Amino acid sequence: MSALVKSLHPDEKIKAGKLGSSMVKAGIGLAIVFLGLSVILVLARGTAEAGHDSRWARFFFAYLTGWCFAVTVPIGMMWLIVLHFLVRGRWVTAVRRICEAMTGAFLVVWIAGLVFMLPVLFGYTDLYYWSTHDAHNPLLNPILQHKTGWLSPGFFFLRYLLYGAIYIAMAWYFSKKSREQDESGDPKITDTLRKVAGPGMIIYAMVTCMTGFDLMMSLAPKWWSTIYGVTFWGSGCVGAFSALALIVLWIQRSGRLVHSITEEHYHDIGKWMFSFTFFWAYVQFSQFMLQWYGNMPEETVWYKYRMFGDWQWVSIAILVGFWAFPFVFLMSRWTKRIVPSLVFFAVWQLVFHWLDLYWNIMPQYDWYSPSSGLNMGPLSGPLGLHHVAFDPVDITTWFGLIGVLLIGIGVNLKGNLIPVKDPTLGLSLGHEQL
Amino acid sequence: MSTAEAAAPAHEPGKAREAFRAVTRDVAWVAEAPKPHKLWLVALAISMCAFAIGIYSIYKVVWTGIGVWGNSQTVAWAWDITNFVWWIGIGHAGTLISAVLYLTRQTWRVSINRSAEAMTIFAVMAAGLFPLLHTGRPWFAWWMIPLPNDMGSIWPQFRSPLMWDVFAVSTYLTTSVLFWYMGMVPDLATFRDRCVARGKNVRAIIYGVLCLGWRGSARHWHRYERAYLILAGLATPLVFSVHSVVSFDFATSQNPGWHTTIFPPYFVAGAIYSGFAMVLTLLLPLRYLFNLQHIIKQTHIHAMCRVMMGMGMCVAFSYLTEFFIAWYSGNPFESFVFLNRCFGPFWWVWWLMMFWGNVCIPQFFWSKWIRNHNVIIWILCIFVNIGMWGERFAIIGVSLSRSFLPSNWSYYTPTRYDVGVFVGTIGMFLMLFLLFFRFAPVIAISEVKGASPEAHAGGPSIGGHH
Amino acid sequence: MSAHEDTSKETGSGPVSVPEGGELYGLLAEFDTPGELITAARKVKDAGYTEFDSFSPFPVHGIDTAMGIKRTILPLVIFGGGFCGAMGGLALQWYCNVYSWGWNISGKPTWSIPANIPIAYECGILLAVLTSFFGMWAANKLPQVWHPFFRLERFGRTTDDGFFIGIQASDEKFDQTATKRLLEDAGAIAIDDCHLDPDPARKTMPKWITAFIVASTAFALIPFAIAAKARTSKSSEPHIHIFSDMDFQPKYKSDTAMDLFPDDRANRGEIEGTIARGWLEDDDLFYRGLVPGENGMQWTTGFPTTYPDGEKFVVDEKLLARGQNRFNIYCTPCHGYDGHGQGMVPTRVADSGGNWQARNLIDPVFGIPMIPNGQLFNTISNGFNTMLGYAAQIPQADRWAIVSYVRALQRAQNATIDDVPADQRSSIR
Q1: Could you give the CA distance from residue C265 to residue B239 in angstroms, rounded to a whole number?
Q2: Nearest-CB residue to C161 (from B17, B220, B245)
Q3: With a CB-CB cutoff of 8 Å, which residues 433-452 of chain B face chain A?
Q4: Rounded distance between C-alpha atoms, residue A201 and residue A80, angstroms
Q5: What pTM, to 2 d.p., does this model score?
Q6: Is the separation of the CB atoms in B188 and C37 below 8 Å?
Q7: How far is A291 from chain B, CA to nearest CA, in Å?
C-alpha cells in the first residue's frame, strides 16, 4: 500500500545512444545467417514430402512458426501498454519506453510475414490447405464449402494487411504520444492516452483473436475452437514478458537505467510471467478438456494427433516445461527477484513458448494423400503418418526470425529510454512490492 | 492516486491520530447507533416478506416435488439452474474486489471489499439452494459426499461436472467465509475495545471471542499480512475455477449452444460483470443511508463502473466469437441455435435482456456525466442484473428448448413456484446483507487506515535525490 | 472529517489509571505517528532488546525490518498443504472410481485424469486455504483472549489510533529506568508500567469456562456416538423412513394378493380366445416362414410372395438396402458389419478377459449359408441359444429384409474370382 515517490537519479544514463543500432546489427546478422542457412537447407532437400507438392512446404511451416513467435512479443507488449493506461497503472512507466520499442517491431515483423503471405496470395497452396484445389471439392470437404470466400487467398491477404495496419498504427500512436510528452511534459497527453486505451483495448482484442484464428487456426480449416484466440494470446504474453525481462536486463548491462529499474520491477515482470503461465494452462486446459469430454469427432481430431503417437511426447514436454516446472518455481518471491534465476526462466519460457507454437502448427504439416490422388489435407490419415520430424529448418528459421524481431525492436530503441516527463514516473521509480 | 500527492505531509503532533480516530468513529457509528434508520427497517421488512414467499415456495417444491416448477423433459434445466449460475456469478465480484484488486494494488478497493465479500457469501448461499432443490430430494444431498456406506462400494461419480460443482462451490464458500472473517478480525477487535471503553460488557465479550484476542502486534501483523496475501493469491485462481467449473456443466455436453470452448473465461467475465452491478445496486443506497460517502467515494464508484464496462465488453466479445464460430464451423445445429436465440420464440430474451443489458448498457459508462449520477448508475445496474440473468436463461433454457430433434422442441413457461423460490432467494440475500450492514464492521477499518496518507505520517522524508 | 457525533468516550488524553499490583510485566510506550513508531522500534532493536513488540491499528509498512522480524515460513507450509490437497484429491478419486468400484462412464477410461483435474484442483486450493488460515493463527498463538497489556486502559486504543511499543521485563537488557529513558529518547508521548494481577487466581482460566467447553464438546459428540452405534449393531426393526419417498403407494403390484377377485390375485390375465384387430397373423409364410411340405409345415427356402396388405413382395435393391440398414443397427453389435461374428460385443468380452462368440454367418463351416430362409427368419424372430429374439424390435417385413441382406452378404463374402465378369478380372489384383 505504499506510495513512495522518487525522482530520476541525477547520474542516470537514459539515452539509447548506440544501443539500438547494435541491436539492429545483431538482428541483421542473425537474420541473414540463419534465414540464409534455412534456404540452403531447403535447396539441399531432395523432394517434397508429407503429401505436399513442393519441397518448400517445410520451410514455410517453420517460417510461420518463427513468425508467430516474433509477432507474439509485440502483441503481448501492446497489451501491457494499453492496459497500463486503462487501469492507470504505475510500475510499468519505468519500462514503458522499452515496451513501446518492442511494439514498434510490428512494422518489420509484418513486412517479414510477406515472405509467406505473398506466395499464398499468388497461388502457393502448400501452407494453407484451404487454398488447395481439393479443399474446394464438395464431396471431399463439404464442411469447407460455406467459407470458401472467407478463406480465399485474396480476402485472407487483405485481412493480414488490415490486422497489421491496426497493430502498427496503435503501436505508432502510443509511442508517438509518449515521446511528445518527453518534449512538452504535458500531463494532458497521459489523459488522452487513458481515454484512447478503452477503445484501443476493444480493437486490440478483436484483432488479436482474429490473428490467431486466421494465421494459426485455419491451418486445420475443418477444426475450430472459440477459445483459440485467447490461448494464442495467453501463450504469446508468456513469451512477451519473458522477452521484456531479457531486454530490460540487457539494457541495464549496458549501464543504462541502472538506478531506475530495480528488482521491484523485475518482480512485477516475473509476476506477469507467472500469471500468464497459469492463464495459458487454464485456457489450454479448458479447450482440451471440453473437446476431449465432448468427444465429437470433428473436434477431437485435432487432439487425436497430439495425444497419441509421436506428438504425445511433445504434449507432455509442454505440459511439464511450459506449465508445471515454471509454475512451481515462479511462485516463489525469490525466483523473480534474483536476476540469474529470472533470466533462466525467461529464456526457458521463450523456448517453450516457441515449442507451444510448434505444437500448434506442425502437426498440420502432414497432409494425407491416399492413392486416389485426392489430398485429404492436415489431421487425416493414419496416426503413424504424423511423426515429430524435427527438422534443422525449424530451428534455423526460428533464429532467423528472432533476428528479424531484434531488428524491429532495435530501430525503435532511440532517444530517451524512459518517459522522463510522465506524471506517473515518480510512482513507478519508487515502486515497491507489498 | 490521492495517496501519492500527500505521501509525506508536514508532521503535526496528534494530527494523524485524529484522522485514524475519525475513520474508526465513522465506521463504528453504523453498528453503534442506538436506533437503526427507518428506511433500513422498511427494506428489512420487505426483504423478509420476500424471504417468507421463498420459504413457502420451497416448502411446496420439497413437499410436492419439482413438478410444481415449469421444468419439462425438454427444458430440464430452467429457472433453477439459471438462478444458480446467476447467483454464483454475483458472488464473484466480492472475491475479485478482495483478492484480485488486492494483488494488483488497487487501493480503492478498501472501502468496498468487506461488504463485497459479505455479498459473495450470501450470494453463494442463495446459489447453493437451487441445485439442492433441483435434486428433488434434498435430504439425500449427502450422497454427493464420498462417505463410506453400507450400500457396498457406492461412491460419487467424480468424472461428472456436477460433482466438480459440488467441490468448487463448497471450496468457494469455505474460502470466502475464511477470507471474510480473517479480514474482519482486526476490526472486530476495534469493536471490542470500543465496547470495553463504553462499558458494554456483553457485546465486548462477544466481539472479544470473535476477534480471537487480536492485539495489533507487529509480529502478528507480519504473518497476518503474508497469510492475507496468500489467501488473495489462492482466491484468485479459485474464483476463475468456480465459474469455469459451472460453465463445464454445459460445455462438456454436446448440446448445441452449450458445447463451446470459450465458455470458461466467458462465464467468468460475465460473473464479474453481474457481480459488480450487484455491488453497486446494494452500496449506492446504503452509502447514503449510513453516511459513508466520504469513505466510499465517487471515484470508487467510477472505478467500479469502469470494471463493469470492461467486463461487459469481454462478454460482448465472447458473443461475437460465438456467433462467428457458429458460422465458421459449418455445424448446422450450432448456427441454428444462435439464429434461434435472436429470432426464435425467445427472441425477446436475446434482444431485451442479453443485447440490451450486456452489450448496450456498458456503453453508457463511457460518459463521465453518467458515472457521476448515481441514480442513473443504479438503474443501469438493475438492467445489467436482468441482462446477465437473461444471458444464463438464453444459454440454458432457450438452448434446451431447441435441441437436436424437432420432436423434442417445446416452449418454457415458469410457474409461480419458480418465481417464488427466486424471489425468496433475493429476499434472503437482501435480509442477510442488511443485517450484516447493521451489526458488523462494514468497512475494513484497518485497511482504510493503512491506505490513507496518514499511514506514512512522521516517517523519514521520502523524495529521494532532488 | 466526521459526519457523526461520537458517542464513545475519548480516552486519548488526561491521566490514565495504571492498575498497580503484582510483579512488573513490562513497559508500554505510546508514539504519535506510524513513522515515529518505526524509528523508535529500530532504536529499541539496535539497543539489543529482543523481547519487545510494537502494536498498531494497521500493519505499518517498514516495521518488519525496523524490528528485525524474520520472514515467516508460512508460505512454504501453505504450499505443502496445497500440494497434499491436490494429491489427496486425486487419490480420493482414484480410490473411489477406479480401485473400489470401476465404472464405465460415457466410454471414457475409468482412470481418466482430465476429468479428475477439476476436483484435485479444488481440493488443493481448499487445503491451502485451510492451512493458511489456521496456520496463521497457530503461528501467532491466537486465540489468546487475555494479555497483560489489556490491563492498561490506554492499550485499548491500539485498535483505534494508538501506536505502542511494549518491552517485557523478562528481557535480559531490561532495566526499568534505563529502558524508560530509551523510550523517552525515542520520542514516546506516554509511558506506562504494566503490572500483572496480584491475585494469582485471576491468572488462570475461570473454572466455568473449562466446564462449559468440556460439556459442550461432550454434547457435540452424541450424534456421532449414535451413528457409530447404528453402524456396528444389528437390529430386526425395519428402516426408519423419515422421508417415505415412493416406497409406500396405494396400489397393487403384480403377483400380489388381492381379495376383490375370487382367485385372490391382483393380476388379471387376458381373456382367452381374443385377438386384437390386425393381429390375426394367419399367413404362415410371412409371419413364421413356414410352408406346407411332405411332413407337415417346414421352413421355406424362398421368400413370401405378398405382404399382408396385398402388395407384392419383391426382392430388389430397395429391400436389400433396407435389410442392410436394419442389419447394421440390430445385428452388427454381435455379428459385425461383415457378418463374421467380430462385432463390438464379442470384442469387448475378449478385451475384458472373457470368452463369448457370436455365430459366424458367412463361413459355410458354421452352417448358416445352408439353412433355409424360413429358419433364418425364425431365428431372428425367436432367438437361438444365447441370442434373444428380436420380434419385439423388428417388424416382420424388416426381418425378411434382413434375411435377404444376410443372403447377399454371404454371397459377397464367399465370392470367388469366377464371380467377377471375365473382362474385368484383370483390373483386380
Answers
A1: 62
A2: B17
A3: 450-451
A4: 10
A5: 0.83
A6: no
A7: 7
